[in-house]
Amino acid sequence: AGLEAVVLVPAGATALGKLSQSVAYGARVVRLEGDFDAGMRLVREHAEALELYVVNSLNPFRVEGQKTIVLDLLQQERWRAPDWIVFPAGNLGNAAAFGKALREALAHGWIERAPRLLAVQAAGAAPFHASFEGDFARLEPVHADTLATAIKIGAPVSFRRAVRAIRETNGAVLAVDDDAILDAKAAVDAAGIGAEPASCASVAGLKQAVATGLVARHERCVCILTGHLLKDPETTLAYHEGTLAGVESRAANRPVTIAPTPEALARALGE
Amino acid sequence: AGLEAVVLVPAGATALGKLSQSVAYGARVVRLEGDFDAGMRLVREHAEALELYVVNSLNPFRVEGQKTIVLDLLQQERWRAPDWIVFPAGNLGNAAAFGKALREALAHGWIERAPRLLAVQAAGAAPFHASFEGDFARLEPVHADTLATAIKIGAPVSFRRAVRAIRETNGAVLAVDDDAILDAKAAVDAAGIGAEPASCASVAGLKQAVATGLVARHERCVCILTGHLLKDPETTLAYHEGTLAGVESRAANRPVTIAPTPEALARALGE
User: Which residues 6+ apart lie within 8 Å of A72 measured at CB?
Assistant: First the structure.
């Protein structure tokens, strides 16, 4: 459209694939020496003076677009709503959008009952989960720390709308640690689907929910994967190589490096 | 299909996205301390004894699959063949497959005349180009050196079949240097399409061919992009950051790193 795009990212905490795409497609990429929340604050307070139009999930048109995730899902299920929709939760834009989509689908009579929303946070960035545990009385921002960069957010901007979504759908909020996220990712990847770490919080969360009895085995559940495998090649590789700091790799297929001889290859294949 | 997959790659010369996908999807990844050609030799000579079934472009079924690139292209053009099909050339599997597809499309009467094939090599890995210059009298393997890892091949295995393809279509073979490949990539990326470096050899080659008069401006040309932008995020980012060894970056949008303050952001946007 000939518009100039500015992409603000936290320095050192942005998946390589996303960073390379932003630069490649022609955006002006500004790395901020600070975390996502510092960037979000900067944009909320100063965007207008800087003549920037904000298009992240603060923007209501963005939410209208994100609604289609749920509407497409319901259509593909022939408007027979699943029992649960499980999704990764960081800035809570998806929670807000999914809640709005279900509200409207009910109002229009497209579905007869809403699925329950299950928001899953990374344990190191779980202010929404903590708030849920306290019946949403308040939101206490945290310093976010997780390998799941897409949900590494300590002060989610869509908190109010997300609370409404969870309450209206009799939903729940869970937190899963990075080990569980990466093990779930290994399973999603090995199935030939593939996703970035944050996405797989949904699968890890469902596993936990079944283990604790929140979700019954007979219930129909849809897990949302929000980002492609190739968005974060570094984390994938480091997990399988067992070099991810603070994470225990249970990966079965660690890459090996050998001399290019038939003897070395035979040994590597025999192991 | 429950088959065990072994992926052999040259250590240190495989794009990060591809490596991460191979590991993620469950293959046993073996990095060989040597280049692509050493790995290819190893596999040709010892695969059977090691009970490996080779599925790279040596495999005739692979070529049958690659033919569909040209058949789909012709169908999308409503069987009105373009004047040229331009594509990156390394191991020459595409050249062989495209030649076979065109031969069969002519034999079946799907097209009335074949497009000319224009194979484009990286200058640092251009034995096919050198051979073409000597009327294909011989193939002299080279030590491959290029940032376009997907075509970093010094001893292409499909040489004979590729020669036939170029001859039958009155085609040509060019070589373009890494600077030209990466500038072409910047243009492909900025158009919102995006591709890995090797892919963009086709676009760089067409530019050269128009400049030298080999291709006339009025001719209809299709450039093949063989790999997605996200296959090689490292090279994309390094190009725009101006940190790629041996390459002059003409990228306009270098990422910057700043403090998360409105003053610093205003300065960054003003520059």
Answer: none
Residue A23 placed within a domain: yes
On whether both A120 and A42 belong to a single domain, the answer is: no
Looking at the structure, tell me whether residues A119 and A39 fall in a common domain: no
User: Do residues B67 and B101 make contact, with C-beta atoms less than 8 angstroms apart?
Assistant: yes
The answer to whether residue B42 sits within a structural domain is yes
Res. B86: pLDDT tops 80: yes
B231 belongs to a structural domain: yes
**Do A26 and A97 share a structural domain?**
no
Q: Which residues of A touch B4 (CB under 8 A)?
A: none
Kindly report the nearest CA distance between residue B90 and chain A, in angstroms.
20
Residues of chain B with Cβ-Cβ distance to A228 below 8 Å are 230
> Tokens for A37?
């929340």
- Is residue B129 within 8 Å of B67, Cβ to Cβ? no
Based on the fold, state whether residues B25 and B131 are members of the same structural domain: no
pLDDT band, very low/low/confident/very high, at B244 (cuts 50, 70, 90): confident
B118, burial (CB in 10 Å: exposed 0-12, middle 13-18, buried 19+) = buried
* Shortest distance, CA A5 to any CA of chain B (angstroms): 11
Q: What pTM value is reported for the model?
A: 0.92
From B31, B228, B230, residue closest to A255, measured CB to CB: B31
Residues A64 and A98 in one domain: yes
State the CB neighbour count (10 A cutoff) for residue A177. Answer: 17
Question: Both A64 and A39 in a single domain?
Answer: no
Section B27-50 average pLDDT: 95
pLDDT (tens digit, 9 = 90+) per residue, B183-209?
999 999 999 999 999 999 999 999 999
Rounded to the nearest angstrom, the minimum Cα separation between B30 and chain A is 5
Closest Cβ–Cβ partner in A25, A50, A233 for B265: A50
In a domain, B54, yes or no: no
Domain that holds residue A209: 60-235
Angstrom distance (rounded) from CA B152 to CA B148: 6
Is the Cβ pair A230, B231 closer than 8 Å? yes
> Smallest Cα–Cα separation from A121: which of A64, A161, A181, A163?
A181
pLDDT band at A57 (very low <50, low <70, confident <90, very high): confident
Site of tokens 């939101």:
A139
Which pLDDT score, from 0 to 100, does residue B219 have?
98
Tally of domains within chain A? 2
State the smallest CA–CA distance between residue A47 and chain B in angstroms. Answer: 9
CB contact under 8 A, B20 and A230: yes
User: A83 and A214 share a domain?
Assistant: yes
Residue from B237, B249, B254, B267 whose CB has the most chain A CBs within 10 Å, to mutate: B237
Judged against a pLDDT cut of 90, whether residue B250 lies above it is answered with: no
Judged by CB atoms closer than 8 Å, whether chains meet at B20 and A261 is answered as: no
- What are the tens digits of pLDDT across the range B103-131? 999 999 999 999 999 999 999 999 999 99
pLDDT tier at B213, thresholds 50, 70, 90: very high
Same structural domain, B136 and B221:
yes
